[in-house]
Amino acid sequence: WTKIRIQDLQFPTRLLDLDPDSFFPDMKVRPCSVLGNIIFGEWESLFQHLHENGRTLSRESLDRFVACIKIALGTPAQREDVRAQAREALYREICRYVERNLGHPDLTASSILRDFGVSRAGLYRMFEPQGGVRHYITERRAIRAVLELSKGVQTRGAVQAAADRWGFSTGPSFNRVIKRMFGASPGALFKAVPSPRVVPRGDPDLLSNYLAATAAG
Asked: Were both Cys, which of 124, 134, 136, 199 would link to 130 (CB 3.0–4.6 Å)?
């Protein structure tokens, strides 16, 4: 599905709350812009949902995509329904941005503020349920690093290499995060019983299954 190239997309004007007699000039959205990335990201999500669920579209996904189109067409910002959907689409695009850049040490709240043009308070509100954007980035990095370690042979220096690759500035900071999340240090993690607070018991491949399920966010 990702190899399909869309050449034309048509919406009924009532779906966009537009006057059917109004004329709209040609409009272009740069793919590399924030709005362009959001629109294309939501468009990909629609097709992914179709790919995984046959012929059924998610209403939630469609509403987000339509809200992005409305923003691009200049729908007044005071429309709360559009604003709420656009905020959710922006949050999802920032999450995709984080996943693409987890291995870069310069991925920070400041880099997100710079690249997306959101306010610091607005960014915090988006990620408040996750304890803030910095906490979210740290935990996503930790999941990726431990998933990498779970798939490889544990050789000398493997833990430090994984920590470096996924953006942890020091070994001790990596150790602290892993112990907080999983109840064991990175070196002992695959020998220790995972913390029942984080990983449910009962499966012999407990940790690997948990990591595989959470790696995609």
From this structure: 136
CA distance 15 to 168: 46
**In which region does residue 23 sit, left (phi positive, over 0), alpha (psi from -120 to 50) or beta (all else)?**
beta
C-alpha separations of 96 from 37, 91, 92, 112, 122 in Å = 10, 9, 6, 11, 18
Angle at 202 between CA 200 and CA 206, to 5 degrees: 65
What is the total residue count of the chain? 217
| Mean pLDDT within 84-89 | 81
Closest CA to 63 of 127, 134, 11: 11
- Which of 10-14, 56-60, 106-110, 210-214 ranks highest by mean pLDDT? 106-110
Instruction: Give residue 133's pLDDT.
Output: 92
- Reading the block at residue 5, the tokens are 């190239």
Distances (CA, A) of 178 to 6, 154, 168, 169, 195: 43, 16, 11, 14, 11
Q: Provide φ and ψ at 104, rounded to 5°.
A: -90, 120
